[in-house]
Automatic annotation (TrEMBL):
InterPro entries per UniProt: Beta-prop_Nup120_160, Nucleoporin_Nup160, NUP160_helical, TPR_NUP160_C, TPR_NUP160_M
Stretches assigned to the NUP160 middle TPR domain: 821-1088
Protein name according to UniProt: Nuclear pore complex protein Nup160
UniProt cross-references to Pfam families, sorted A to Z: Beta-prop_Nup120_160, NUP160_helical, TPR_NUP160_120_M, TPR_Nup160_C
Keyword entries, A-Z: Nucleus, Transport
Protein species of origin: Capitella teleta
GO MF terms held by the record: structural constituent of nuclear pore
Domain NUP160 helical: 550-778
Region annotation Disordered: where it falls in the sequence: 1102-1121
């Protein structure tokens, strides 16, 4: 956030003479308290002319929106910014050349109570005090005071500020006139006015209160009286102002009384100050006041810096106020180097300084303030970070672009601002658009760097065509140019502006132009190497190396370090670069060292000079070999315990959030990186020294036993240390790969398969969008938790306030080193795997091949990383190679047998193979799964319970690959019957899904020990009964299975069941078609069985049970409460019953084909009677006849329906029986569904004629022996009032003429009845007897004939009743006459017959 203050007229440019640059900071009072939100938290600021940038950093909490920028236009800032704490606010007091300001921000403790911390991953975020900065609050007039000037001589030289306990904001301003002006802003919420007071060196003081304009130019006491530096601090109940002017008088002013209560001449503390007393301080002298307050705020130490042209010094005093007068108690005087002081800060007993050398470098030094001895040797130099290399070494086999890009974007190497500035410089030269000085994504920054350098290469090319060598040289030149520009901007950005010193924790931070640096305590081993000749280290070394029995060895170590440094200084840097490159390519360190030393020995002059100096130190050592042994022991981090206490809850709370913020993690990791780099150099130098000693041999003057021990013991151990530290150096500087959500999800699935707990899943959120090292990733997650658990054993965290920085950071760095040390922890490679750093894990394993500990575990993790990198062949080899350690190494043992510490070796390896198989299955590697599973089977014992699982895995993947025969053989080989059955079920289902039915049917499903045919049938039946018939057809498969094995009755049974289910579950035309085919298949199968066995048991109505669970559940309980099973009735079906069902289905199918009405498709199959009615209504007479025959039903409905159709057709036709019209032509649709009788004229006949002919045919076939169908037809015709067809009358005459006569009478057909009686009389008399079906007629000797006299009498009676009509009278008489004749004839024939009978019997008539 940016805010702007407008402070004056744009016409007044007097402030432009001030171009102040500076920086500083403030550590919270409770920064050393474990439970405080302010622990390891501080504020720093940077000033550039009129801009003030404030930022807040916490090493324990990640702060959001932690910076704010203020711009004071038309004014210049003074560097004396002060920060103060009140109960609820943080007050920043700012002074400009025109105004003073009190900026208010909420205190962190208040923010913690108001705003709950938000957890994000492993980092806990908190709001910064600058998160909710308000411009309106900052511009409140109560928090600002504007100076007024009326002359050009007015100028503010320096200032100081303080916040009193009552809340008054006190500002002191030293004016160029020699006046010191005090401005007091009232407390918050007070209505009081601003108070202004002038302090002058004369005896008369002026008090200007109530906001009156001060009289600024009342004269001065001379230039010497002008205050050069100011400082405000309370003593007792008053606030005092300390001033130091060019007259070197340190004055102490009472702010409440406005008087000078003390004046001390600094000349008294400057040795050889005669010249200064005479002439005064020379031009360019510099004076600074600083203070240090103890944690209890009971005492204050005042530090005075005096700088002259030829010397500089620090004087430390303790000011006190007694009786209203001030006094100074001199503590010590410290002389500084002849360099320019940038800033200094104080903490109890220490002074930290920041110097600028003539070469432009920044140096930090510290010294103890409590010592009374003076001299420059009291200063201790702070070892600065390794300087950036001025050029990048490019090996011959690598590309210059690649090497420079790797160096530029190494995490922590260059700031984004420096890279952007270098890019813009090149863009300016190329006349292209500049990039904004803002946050740019890393990928975009990489692209921009490559783009500008490539453009510069093309622009610098003098010719269009260049040889490869010329292009490579030009490329290297331009990249070196860009890198050199980048280094310059990085150095400029690292320009120091000020110091932040926290007296509670010992933290010291360096505010730089573009960053903040930290000064950390140096671990003793590092300090011993970096400053081998410094004194006072013997005791520390002795404690560290546990060498209390031999104190002389500590001095030997110091001399040995001097020898190592001497050798390093003598070797060319390129040789050391090649040494590290060869290590990266896995060459033997001993061989590399031998080569480097041999090249070094090629220059005798250089060797002799170095060796003489080194030998002189060696001769002073009491035991050279033991000192090497001790140094190796010191370099081994596994031998460096962090703490020995057990720890308690309070200490756990103290370290719970220690260094968990982004800044904290980065800081610790950078410190670890520095330590690893130093220790690598140390180990490298030791290896080279030992190699040099061995090559010189007898020239060293060492005994043969010592040389032999060096060669066989110390040299290999040192080489291992070199490899270890090279690995850890790589780890500290290698960038982590951003991880996608899909990769995280895949990693979680892999962890679940392997049974690995998701350690450190709280991944720092910045990993995805900012580059960080692998070590930062590890420390920002699970690694940091492990380190904090280890720190709980350190008693230093019990102190209050806790010296986190002075005494806690070194154990923290060592704890981190132990967590990543290959010989003490395996968490790091496991962490890399869990967090998807597969490329880094592969490189880690490659660089740690020399480490024998956990070698198999690393091979296993390498295999998993190869799997994720789509290199399955490499992964498989790694998994196999890791088998040997499955029962020996803790990690693999935990993978194979979670929770078990040991177990049978063979069984453990089999379990390990099972976990690996799970991984291979996840990545879809069936070939490797099969191969590995076979290996596991060959290794397992015969009674191993995992054999069944292994066989099942092989079966699964053989089947997936389409290797049906191999899958079949594997299934039979499975020793577990239940697993075998599961495999069989999957085998059958997969083959069905693939439509490989022939293979499924033809396999034998048996061997010498296993018979699976019944299980096949059971499984297929279960699947058939459980799966929707519309999508799968296991019934047909079962049918084929049984037919292939000539089991026709089972084949018929299964197809009948199929047909049943189709009728119940599948409606529609297709369902009926399938049902009909199923019944036909069942009939065909049963007809192939012997007649006695051609039957089946009717399946259950709802057969949904599984193959083995064929019994229903209990339907009730007996008297004892025991469930009783259901008693099923068994129904046996023979061919006839199945055929009947088929006939019904076929009939329904015909109905649907004729009229696909939805209502006909729904519902169960109709009964025979219902089907008969439907068929007749649809005109399917032949099918109806079949139904009647099969189910023994009367055909009356058929004849009735057909007769009605014939009558309707006849009634709707033109000129009966001639040709079709629109109505009768539709009758062909149902006529074609029946078998029409053959007729010579059928082709030219109408549909009506065909219908009558069909009726005639049916009566001929089914009504010749019975008159019920004739009567039915005739009744239907007569009921419709339609004339009877001649063929029907003729047929009826032959069948039953008497019944025909009665029907005529019933329907009052007197004419037809009379005609029929007359014809009957003729037929019995012998005329036309064949028309009535008579075999004889009335004559002598013939059998008797008869006539329906009752019907004839009824006819005569009816005719007599209608005699009123002549026609019927005539018929009546005709009929009577014929009857009389007939009776006469009957009488005559009867007499003749009687006579003949009597004659034959011997009687006479």
């Amino acid at each position: 956030m940016d805010f702007c203050f407008s402070l004056g007229s744009a016409c007044d440019r007097s402030w432009e003479s001030f171009h102040t640059k500076g920086g500083g900071g403030y550590a919270y009072k409770s920064s050393g308290s474990a439970g405080s939100p302010c622990r390891n938290r501080f504020i720093y600021w940077k000033i550039n002319a009129d801009t003030l940038e404030l930022a807040e950093i916490s090493l324990d909490f990640s702060l959001t929106s932690n910076s704010v920028r203020f711009r004071f236009t038309d004014s210049a800032l003074l560097p004396d910014i002060s920060v103060h704490e009140s109960h609820s606010n943080v007050v920043v007091m700012v002074t400009t050349t025109r105004s003073v300001h009190r900026l208010l921000f909420p205190h962190p403790s208040r923010l913690q109570q108001k705003d709950q911390a938000v957890f994000s991953g492993s980092e806990r975020s908190q709001s910064s005090i600058f998160t909710d900065s308000s411009m309106m609050r900052s511009k409140d007039p109560a928090h600002s005071y504007f100076l007024e000037s009326s002359g050009v001589a007015f100028n503010v030289l320096t200032s100081a500020s303080w916040l009193s306990q009552e809340g008054h904001a006190i500002f002191s301003l030293a004016l160029s006139s020699g006046v010191v002006q005090l401005i007091q802003l009232p407390p918050l919420g007070s209505n009081a006015e601003v108070a202004v007071l002038e302090l002058k060196h004369s005896s008369v003081m002026q008090r200007l209160w109530t906001g009156l304009v001060p009289q600024l130019f009342r004269g001065a006491d001379g230039e010497a009286a002008v205050a050069q530096t100011l400082l405000l601090h309370p003593l007792g109940n008053d606030t005092f102002l300390f001033t130091l002017g060019r007259d070197l008088k340190l004055r102490m002013w009472s702010c409440s009384g406005g008087e000078c209560v003390m004046a001390t001449d600094m000349m008294d503390f400057i040795p050889n100050s005669t010249a200064i007393k005479k002439t005064g301080p020379p031009a360019g002298s510099k004076f600074i006041l600083r203070k240090c307050v103890t944690s209890s705020s009971q005492s204050m130490t005042l530090g005075v810096f005096l700088s002259f042209l030829d010397k500089c010094q620090f004087c430390f005093f303790e000011p006190v106020s007694i009786g209203g007068r001030g006094q100074l108690r001199h503590i010590s005087t410290l002389f500084g180097p002849q360099e320019e002081l940038v800033d200094f800060g104080m903490c109890p007993d220490l002074v930290w300084t920041l110097w600028s050398t003539p070469e432009g470098k920044t140096m930090s030094r510290l010294a103890h303030t409590s010592r009374l001895t003076a001299g420059a040797d009291r200063w201790s130099c702070v070892h600065s970070e390794a300087p950036l290399p001025l050029h990048v070494n490019v090996p011959e086999h690598l590309d210059a672009r690649q090497c420079h890009m790797n160096e530029i974007f190494t995490p922590g190497r260059f700031t984004t601002q420096a890279i952007l500035k270098a890019i813009n410089i090149f863009r300016r030269a190329q006349d292209t658009t500049h990039l904004p000085d803002s946050i740019v994504p890393l990928n975009a920054l990489r692209s921009e760097v490559a783009s500008v350098v490539e453009y510069e290469i093309q622009r610098s090319a003098s010719e269009y065509e260049m040889s490869h060598e010329e292009y490579m040289a030009l490329q290297a030149q331009q990249w070196a140019k860009f890198y050199s520009c980048l280094v310059q901007y990085q150095h400029r950005g690292h320009q120091a502006l000020g110091l932040v010193v926290d007296g509670s924790t010992g933290m010291v931070a360096m505010v730089r132009k573009e960053a903040v640096g930290f000064l950390r305590p140096c671990q003793t081993t590092e300090h011993m190497y970096l400053s081998p000749l410094s004194g006072g280290l013997a005791n520390q070394i002795q404690i560290l190396a546990n060498l209390t029995e031999d104190g002389a060895l500590c001095d030997d170590l110091a001399k040995l370090m001097a020898c190592l440094s001497l050798l390093r200084d003598s070797l060319p840097q390129f040789s050391l670069f090649c040494f590290e490159q060869d290590l990266f390519y896995l060459q033997d360190p001993v061989q590399i060292a031998s080569t480097v030393v041999s090249d070094f020995l090629a220059d005798p002059n250089q060797v002799d000079q170095m060796w003489e100096e080194c030998l002189s130190r060696v001769r002073l050592m009491e035991d050279f070999v033991q000192s090497i042994e001790a140094l190796i022991h010191l370099l081994d981090l596994a031998q460096s315990p962090v703490g020995s206490d057990a720890g308690d809850a309070a200490r756990q709370l103290g370290v719970h959030r220690l260094f968990t913020s982004q800044h904290g993690v980065t800081l610790i990791c950078e410190a670890v990186s520095q330590m690893m780099r130093t220790r690598f150099d140390m180990a490298e130098d030791l290896l080279l020294t030992l190699t040099l000693i061995l090559q010189l041999g007898d020239q060293t003057g060492m005994s043969v036993s010592d040389l032999e021990r060096i060669k066989c013991d110390l040299l290999p151990r040192t080489a291992t240390l070199v490899q270890t530290y090279h690995l850890l150096n790589w780890l500290c500087r290698t960038e982590a790969t951003p991880v996608s959500a899909a990769q995280r999800e895949s990693s979680l699935r892999q962890q679940e398969i392997l049974g690995i707990s998701a350690k450190g899943c709280n991944i720092p959120t910045r990993v995805s969008d900012q580059h960080c090292t692998l070590l930062e990733l590890f420390m920002g997650s699970y690694g940091g938790d492990l380190v904090r658990e280890e720190l709980q054993r350190c008693a230093v965290f019990d102190e209050e306030p806790c010296p986190v920085w002075n005494e806690g950071i070194v154990p923290t760095i060592l704890a981190v080193g132990q967590q990543i040390w290959p010989y003490s922890s395996f968490m790091l490679p496991e962490f890399l795997l869990i967090h998807c750093q597969y490329t880094a894990l592969q490189e880690y394993v490659r660089l740690s091949q020399w480490c024998e500990l956990n070698g198999s575990s690393r091979r296993f993790l390498l295999g998993v990383s190869y799997l994720n990198s789509n290199e399955s062949h490499k992964a498989y080899n790694c998994f196999v190679e890791a088998t040997l350690g499955a029962s020996q190494e803790d990690f693999l043992l935990e993978v194979a047998r979670p929770g078990a510490s040991s177990g049978d070796v063979v069984n453990t390896r089999v379990l390990y193979y099972l976990k690996v198989l799970g991984l291979l299955e996840m990545f879809s590697e069936p070939l490797h799964v099969i191969e590995l599973a076979k290996t596991a089977i060959s290794l397992a014992e015969p009674d191993d319970p995992n054999l069944a699982t292994l066989w099942s895995i092989i079966f699964k993947h053989e089947l997936a690959l389409g290797h049906n025969q191999a899958a079949y053989n594997t299934m039979l080989a499975n020793p577990d019957s239940s697993r075998r059955k599961d495999c069989l079920r999957e085998f059958l289902v997969v083959l069905c899904d693939r439509s490989e039915l022939q293979t499924l049917v033809e396999l034998p499903y048996r061997d010498r020990h296993v018979v699976l045919e019944d299980e096949v049938v059971s499984i297929l039946q279960s699947r058939a009964r459980a799966i929707d018939l519309n999508h799968h057809n296991y019934y047909q498969l079962l049918y084929a299975f049984h037919v292939f094995r000539s089991n026709y009755r089972k084949a018929g049974s299964i197809m009948y069941e199929y047909g049943m289910r189709l009728g119940r579950e599948c409606g529609g035309l297709k369902g009926l078609q399938k049902q009909a085919k199923a019944y036909l298949a069942a009939l065909n199968a049963l007809r192939l069985v012997e007649e006695n066995n051609a039957w089946i048991v009717k399946p259950m109505t709802n057969p949904m049970d599984e193959d083995d669970d064929l019994q229903n559940g209990p339907s009730g309980k007996d008297q004892y409460g025991v469930p009783t099973p259901v008693k099923r009735s068994i129904e046996v079906l023979e061919l006839e019953a199945i055929e009947k069902e088929y006939i019904l289905v076929h009939a329904r199918l015909q109905l649907l084909q004729l009229d696909p009405e939805p209502s006909r498709m729904a519902g169960p199959t109709a009964s025979a009677n219902e089907t008969l009615s439907l068929l007749v209504n649809s005109g399917l007479m032949d099918s109806a006849v079949n139904i009647c025959k099969m189910f023994d039903l009367p055909m009356t409905p058929i004849f009735e329906g057909l007769t009605l159709r014939c009558v309707q057709l006849a009634e709707n036709s033109d000129n009966y029986m001639q040709s079709d019209n629109d109505y009768t032509s539709d009758a062909w649709q149902w006529l074609k569904q029946n078998e029409l009788p053959s007729c010579t004229a059928a082709r030219d006949s109408s549909s009506t004629e065909h219908a009558w002919r069909m009726l005639h045919s049916y009566l001929s076939r089914y009504g010749s022996h019975d008159t019920k169908y004739h009567r039915c037809v005739l009744t239907c015709i007569l009921s419709q009032g339609f004339p009877l067809p001649d063929w029907l009358v003729a047929s009826y005459k032959r069948v039953n003429s008497a019944e025909l006569l009665r029907l005529y009478l019933d329907y009052d057909l007197l004419d037809e009845a009379a005609s029929l009686v007359l014809e009957m009389l003729d037929s019995v008399c012998g005329k036309g007897k064949e028309y009535f079906g008579l075999k004889t007629f009335l004559h002598t000797g013939a059998p008797a004939v008869w006539l329906p006299y009752t019907a004839i009498d009824q006819l005569l009676l009816a005719l007599r009743d209608v005699r009123t009509e002549p026609h019927y009278t005539e018929l009546f008489h005709t009929l009577n006459e014929r009857l009389d004749k007939y009776f006469g004839l009957v009488e005559d024939i009867s007499q003749q017959t009687s006579k003949a009978a009597l004659s034959s019997a011997g009687w006479s008539y």
